[in-house]
Write a structure and sequence with these properties.
This protein is α/β, with parallel strands linked by helices and about 325 residues long. The protein has eleven helices and nine strands. The strands form two sheets. The chain has a five-stranded parallel sheet, with helices on both faces. Strand 6 and strand 7 form a beta hairpin. The structure holds adenosine-5'-diphosphate and magnesium ion. Magnesium ion binds next to helix 2.
Amino acid sequence: MDLESHKVIASDVVVTTTDTIRHTEVITSWLTSHKPLILCGPPGSGKTMTLSAVIDNHPEFILATLNFSSGTSPDILYKVFAQYCEIIDSPDGLIMQPTRQSYSEDKWLIIFCDEINLPAVDKYNTQRIIMFMRQLIEQGGFWRNTDNKWIRLRRIQFVGACNPPTDSGRVSLSHRFMRHTPLLMVDYPAENSLKQIYRCFNNALLKLHPNLKSHVDSLTNSMVEFYILNQQKFTVDIAPQYIYSPRELSRWIRGMYEAMEPLEVMTIEELIRLWGHEGLRLFQDRLISNIEKNWCDIKLNEVACKYFTNIDIEQVLLRPILYSNWLSKVYCFKYSV
Ligand SMILES: Nc1ncnc2c1ncn2[C@@H]1O[C@H](COP(=O)(O)OP(=O)(O)O)[C@@H](O)[C@H]1O
Ligand SMILES: [Mg+2]
């Protein structure tokens, strides 16, 4: 893929990799056969991104996104129905379907429940909203509480995404619900997928300064390596914030974009210094102990030496690296020897 430089800060760009193609194929076939489905995987693995991208590509779907929390109750589904649906009186009884005035005849409403396993259980150990959804899927309708009439759903389907139930605050979804929904496990992209994704973003980034174009591979490989080193060294067992996902790499590049965009010219030394600065802010600032912080400092220099050859890394990455000028709001990162 070839992206324009400003696409670096857009949040809806999905770079095609074998993983994204696989996921897209599976999700599309479930969606178009109107089955409910659930994606499960660690935070930052791309569940929300993939689902949104698939649904955006299918104009026959209308998307209603709900972000579940521990306090979410069935009322939220009534609100969605009120906003997107109408009830018609047909010979077969009352039917609820996506509003015909706003949407053409054959559109399907997809209710996307993000973080679907967050709602807390009640005193009977039940997630009420999940059981309500189970009934909607299993029986195809519900009893309207104002007049006790049965309302049948038409062209409405459910999709969910969640972190593994072993993560804190999560509830294992009931098997009575899960037996209706196929489950797709999503994991972090492998190293070569990461390189592919972020090479594409870095390519776009360096379009801002074409003189640096030849460094795209060094930049990508160094970022991915530093990220993986951190991910392996620091785990959530040590501290809850030690969680590393591709979001970090996306933020790294976005941070660099913000600084590089206003600049007229940039040298490779300045690029490396900025790379180091953004990397430390992302990876070092979350660390707790000084030993860990030092490790991070040393590794950053090691990785830089490995990938940016013929450059005096010690000098270029000389600490402290301080950039911001709060008054002008312009990043300045003069590299001076
Ligand atoms: N193939 C890809 N193309 C572009 N960005 C990606 C890709 N894979 C992962 N990412 C990055 O990873 C992030 C995944 O975040 P998100 O979809 O919110 O994860 P989840 O919903 O699983 O917690 C995206 O925001 C993006 O920055
Ligand atoms: Mg998500």
